[in-house]
Batch of 4 targets.
Target 1
Amino acid sequence: MWRNIVLIFVLCVAGVVFVKCQFFDCHDDPGYSPDEGPLADLQFTWLGALQYIHVKNGTPHYFRVPRVILISRQFVLSTAADAAQIPEGYALGNVIFGDYERDEAECHVTIDDIAAGVECEPAVLLMPIADVLLHPEYKHFGAKYSVALMKLITPVKSKYMLPACLPYRDYVVDKNGKLTKTKLVHVDFSTDVPRDFIEEEKEVQRVSILPRELCFLYDNPENVTKMTQNRMCCTTGCGFHSGAPTMMHEHTGHWSIVALSQGGPPCPDPLRGRAPPSPPHHIMIHPYVPWITAAITGKAIGAFAKDDPFGFIMPRASAYDLVAHGWVGHWWMGGLRCYDRAESADDMFKFYHEIFQMKPVAETFLTYYLEIDAAHNTLIICVKVGMPYQLGQPRIWELDSPLVKLRIPLIRFSHQYKFQVEAWGYNSTESSQSSPSKESEDTVED
């Protein structure tokens, strides 16, 4: 059934889909590592597709369906060529999210309904485009490899539809300045031209970054300046589609966008012996983060490593434990350090992870009380609680200590229910350890 609410179309499908154990969002389980191949569960909901609509009959384009990435609740990221080079006779249509995870308000589901086992039905979100912003290097200089921002007509309202994260650093090179050997995760739809998004599957492919000299060994792209060449990378694999993202899973659980595929020829026929094609080209996103941030927020980039302009404010000091304790998607964040990423979270490590499961025989009301004790010289600075729905408000005491107390209130329920708890800490002795001062060295020598 189609619903028309402020030009936002949501397609609901009859039937029950079990999404109670899904915690896949920007604050994901750090231990999750997807296998290569099709994905069967609801994951990577920020991956969408761009439709080109025929100006006369309103039908979508028959073979060109670029991919887009939700990076804030009202902006998606795409390649500049997909946003500007529209096929003749077509116009920009809708951005489609095939796995739109609705929250309780959109599903019109109450707490009592959830306790009785009622769940939200799957949905497909069709969102019109309000504006397109091309990067100046493409708009004014015609750079072939560049990015564009598309503003949605209204923000995505579901609190479970969290955007993908922009990178805080260049993941193409490691800390020593050399080409990274870490395999990245490439996410895309299974079919070349997604049509039936209700049944459309996603698939994961592990790719590796190739040396830069291989990017132009077989095919030297035209109209690419030296500047944009430095914003390109090449990977292993083949058959990539324009706009499909290559991601890095940070140790804190965040999925960060490393690059967008520029598209290219399909995989060669293994039965035909031909010269290998040029490796697929990708647009690195890290150099564009200041421009993306300024375009969305309307202000110049400042301390971007400390404050996320897309709604996740990360203060560094608090007089009371409850400050900055709240929900982010399916996760309740207990502690200021739960919002840290990249270099800010290098000193954090997860030392506790447990999944709780209950299947009562009758209607049950239960409140969990946990005491998490860390190892010697370890201070607990963050506790995360992952739940199917944002039910109740957990409470935590005595953070920044070796022992924390956690209370998780649950509603009355009569069906199987799962949630998980993670505890993060850091070694308190690392900050106190330092090299001997010159004065002490002189004393020892004497």
Target 2
Amino acid sequence: MTTEEPPSREELDRQVRDRYGTWRDQPRGLACAVVAAFLVLTTVAFAVALAVLVLAAR
């Protein structure tokens, strides 16, 4: 039997960062952020255009 302590939280976090990086290092994560921003802005623009049309029709 070994009496080694389990690695600390900081050590585990460092190992994960070394292995996977952060979301900013991942091209897929950046692409998802760009697509999500585009979808949100498109939805807002559509809602504003719809509101302008409704108000103009009155």
Target 3
Amino acid sequence: MSVTLFYASVSGSVEVKKRQERINSVLSSKKIAYKSIDITQKPEHKDLMRKIANNPTAMPPQIANGSSYCGDFAAFENAIEVGKLEQFLKI
């Protein structure tokens, strides 16, 4: 399995962009291998993100490991705060 970050390259929200950058920054700095999927490029990417999240209205950024949903930005930040990022990412 591999960690996947679902993100939006096109967003009118500065907050969404900051959250996506924060996740990229943390994963890169901790040398955690991950792939990024831009949900704005193909509708099926957004559909996949929402299916994995089991939420028909889920918005990016969302994180998964394979087909196993990890969580959204708030859950990611909480995992960092309590020192359980690897458990959160299921790695």
Target 4
Amino acid sequence: MKLFQPGTPGSSAMSYAGLIEKIEILRTTLRWASRLERPEIEKLLRQSNTLRDEILQLSHKERFVKAAAAEVEPTEKLPGQRRQALLERSFVFEGTFGDNPELLDALEVAEKAAPTDLPVLIDGESGTGKELMAKVIHANGSRADKPYISVNCGAIPDNLLESELFGHKKGAFTGAANDRKGKFESAHKGTIFLDEIGELPLPGQVKLLRVLESHEIQRVGSDEPIVVDARIVAATNKNLRRLSEEGTFREDLFYRLSVIHVSLPPLRERKDEIPLLFSYFCDEAAEMLKRRPVKMSPALRAFLLSYSYPGNIRELRNLIYRLSCLAGETADTVHLPVDIRPKNQTAATTVNESTAIPDATPASLSDARRIASDEAEKAFLEKGLKEVGGTVAELARRCDMNRSHLQMLLKKHGIHSKDFRRQAVQPDGNGDTPIQRR
């Protein structure tokens, strides 16, 4: 049986017509074959995989052409248009982003670089989303269905760096009980993300430079070269150019890594993104904690919108998770960490944690209703605790409420059950013995 031979010499240019023709040949082969032996089946499977890869590459090349063509369009666009244009071009982004011009510049550069195999260097403050950007580049490139391997260069001890990156042979050193693949081998045909590349020691920089130049590695304890094809994306929160001038980072490695250079602005310069991240992280935390998304009081929302976020997006995400865990239905500034809590709120809770003082006049009718509802809820809980002598379990039984949920409501309003425990006089056999009720 004659099977078609894909990838003939000189057929590097791909088109939909050519791909359809190959698919039709495959279909004809399968339709008229009375019997296929296992080797022929495996050959057809390889051919179908080749077709799939060619279609994916064509899709990414067309996306690249669209992104490049967008450059000739006027750059002046209304707020939201650049962001919407990215999404309309099937731009893969796991998360949310706003209209900050610097961030959109970075995303558009990433979109154009993704279909290529050029090295990318991402820099920015800690917590600005450098690894997310690396995943964006991988997801929008032709290697999206291949491995994505992440390496934290600052977390690997110097004596294990070469083994971690390039692997080792059995017996290469004490403890090497078996052959082991390194990160570069694991990332073959895919993407390797080198985080905190500025922490890489000079000997490790030399070995990495050799890999970039030769596309070969050697396992520790072996002289056999292994060809690796891994797209390199590196990230740092340091100024590598200045480090190279100081002699702590190799200048030739810096230029090798920064063929495409992407800089991420800090969150304090992306204020329009904060409300979007509120919603995104609240939903994410609610899903993890198996509860409804937490609501925010006007005072808390105003604080979070004006806070400087030295830890950037990572700090905001951790704050939202904290609020979702500690608060009930509505979070307030009292649920913030003490070291960043507004001073007036800290002073108020220090004087009397059970006193709720509104931070400001309600901004809307719905806020006024919410405040009134919270005050009614607090009054009900205080009245109930008085009736049961501060016994939380009894109040939970009377209200047909889970005890842990009741404890959470008490904490929300700053109510302490011990303040309501009392001596209740109940007659014993003689009718006059006081009994302590707890």
